[in-house]
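Give me the fold.
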Amino acid sequence: MDTLRNLRGYVLPFHSLSKSHTYFACQNCGYKSPKWMGRCPDCGEWNSLVEERIESVSPVMNTGTKISYRSEPIPITEIKIKESIRLSCAIEEFDRVLGGGIIPGSVILIGGDPGIGKSTLLLQATGGLSSWGLKILYVSGEESAEQTKLRGDRLGISHRNLYILTETCLEEIFRQVERLKPDILVIDSIQTMFTSALQSAQGSVSQVREVAAQLMHLSKRTNLSTFIVGHVTKTGAIAGPRVLEHIVDTVLYFEGERNHPYRILRAVKNRFGSTNEIGVFEMKSTGLVEVSNPSELFLSERPSDRVSGSVVVSSIEGTRPILIELQALVAPSNLGVPRRMTKGVDANRVSLLMAVLEKRVGLFLQSQDIFVNIAGGVKVDEPAVDLGLTAAVASSFKNIPIDRKTVVIGEVGLAGEVRAVTHIESRLREAEKLGFTRCVIPKNSLDRLIDSFNIETEGVSSVEEAFEVLLG
């Protein structure tokens, strides 16, 4: 039987090239079904299955050019490792999240809410890259070339090495890449791109999956670094199939509130660096401005007077500690079931710590509404903020303020014990640098300290002991 390889290199029967079939694909998770269903059995989303038609078409029939991705197996002992050279985009916070810069041939996916600043960030990054003499091809499927130019003028970006292309057809983009041979390719956004090899609509699961796969093959074959912008769903995840995040090398989320000037760039997957790093930016009229000292920024708007329910905690984000203000408000509830509302911290973790306070410390919180907030729009999931969270709740409940110059660090167990945390020296050094005079830490961490600090450190072994130190 005659055969022909498709774009991914798989061998297909020749007679299948002219056949087509339809199926129903979930636009949330990519699940396929031969018939329509009201609810996706895989992810549980309602009314997400859309009919799609796919035709097995040879790439020769579509583009007139035969694309080959063949490779031969090589013994691992004969593989030569090239020295990794990272490309700096002249934005230190961006380079930090990427692990030190851009690896040539890598594929980077950036997701975020509409209007959060993804295009602004990439335009500033490509402007920095083009200033080093690198050739950039910025493909916009949502804005015209004039609109992109207006944004570039506002950001002060004007380089001859930065090329703007308004296109949504993948085959035409490949033709321009072959002609220009850029060093960096930006696709803004993946949901607007389509390949003529598929008959489904733009933004569908099939189109997103196939376009991303072909971009990945192009990057690996030509050593072309590619940025892909992805929209997010109402749940905050990148729209399209989950396989999209598995295809790329790095997944970044751009977070922040629209009405809040601060933006956080967070890595959730990185094959070439740490996944715990964050970059902090401030949105201004001239674009995104780096925040070199996030701790000072997040603490700049603390109340000048002593207020109950406010405490400073330390969280390790990647390789650096960040001091943030944790706020709690405890008030009598008029409802049968008291409310537990959180912002920036895990709600389940808060419920667990409230149970510890009731059982081990004796605080009667069953008739109280409890609200917990991380100031500055930061999201924290580190156990080292447990002790600070319980202290803030107890401070608001008893209406006793905590000293403004005190930092609280420690993990809380179910028995009410305070457990040791990592990177205690760097946390203390950051607190000392910002002018704090006292730090309450786990006793085991205090015993393991090697360096000496000018800041006063008090070790505690239980939540009750910590409350005696903080609340008298």
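The first helix runs from residue 59 to 63.
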